């Protein structure tokens, strides 16, 4: 993996996040968890390059994201969909996802976890977090569609500054 300047990111993140998916990883070298996500975005806010990601509070990764100032996003490419399927369907409370998928952790200078398989990896520092609120949905059909019976709790949104970027 080689470091690149954040200003040199030239991904189509509509395609990358929505179709390729990403791993959201938080924790320490000694204890971390990762999960698959396909909701989020990248842009410019508060004069900083930022990501925004959504995590349901039921997810094990939520606990790690809440306790740490940083998280990472790893884009593994279409060829690694099987890894995403495991990391999106099994809980790290019951399964060692690294062992089950063959993911190979690598660590940033700040001690955050990336994966050797990542074709693109971003290190992110949390700036803002909040839980979506029922009363704030302008289009109430979204609330029913995504948070109705059997869907789980309202997502928590994190806005984080991109502080590092690596490519394979």
Q: Can you walk through the features of this model?
A:
The structure is a single chain. The protein has 168 residues and is of the alpha+beta class. 23% of the residues lie in helices and 38% in strands. It is built from five helices and ten strands; from the N terminus they run E-H-E-E-E-E-H-E-H-H-E-E-E-H-E. It has helices at 13-20, 60-67, 81-89, 97-101, 140-147, and strands at residues 2-3, 22-27, 32-37, 40-45, 48-55, 70-75, 105-107, 113-115, 120-131, 156-167. The strands form two sheets. Strands 1, 2, 3, 4, 5, 6, 9 and 10 form an eight-stranded antiparallel sheet that branches. The radius of gyration is 15 Å and the shape is globular.
Which quaternary structure do these chains form?
A: single chain
Gross morphology is globular
Beta-strand residue percentage:
35-45%
The total of helices stands at 5
Question: Given the helix and strand composition, which structural class is it?
Answer: alpha+beta
Order of helices and strands: EHEEEEHEHHEEEHE
Mean pLDDT: 95
Low-confidence stretches: none
Terminal CA distance: 5 Å
| Radius of gyration, CA atoms, in whole angstroms | 15 Å
What percent of the residues sit in helical stretches (DSSP H or I)?
10-25%
Extended strand count: 10
Main pleated sheet: 8 strands, antiparallel
């Amino acid at each position: 993996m080689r470091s690149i300047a954040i200003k040199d990111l030239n991904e189509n993140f509509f395609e990358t996040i929505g179709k390729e998916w990403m791993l959201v990883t938080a924790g320490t070298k000694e204890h971390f968890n990762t999960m698959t996500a396909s909701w989020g975005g990248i842009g410019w806010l508060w004069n900083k390059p930022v990501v925004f990601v959504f995590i349901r509070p039921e997810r094990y990764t939520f606990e790690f994201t809440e306790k740490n100032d940083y998280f990472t996003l790893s884009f593994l490419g279409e060829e690694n969909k099987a890894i995403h399927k495991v990391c999106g369907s099994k809980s790290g409370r019951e399964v060692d996802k690294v062992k089950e998928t063959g993911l190979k952790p690598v660590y940033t200078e700040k001690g955050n976890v990336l994966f050797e398989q990542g074709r693109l990896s971003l290190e992110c520092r949390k700036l803002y977090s909040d839980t979506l609120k029922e009363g704030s949905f302008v289009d109430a059909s979204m609330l029913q569609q995504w948070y109705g019976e059997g869907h789980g709790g309202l997502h928590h949104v994190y806005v984080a500054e991109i502080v590092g970027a690596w490519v394979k």
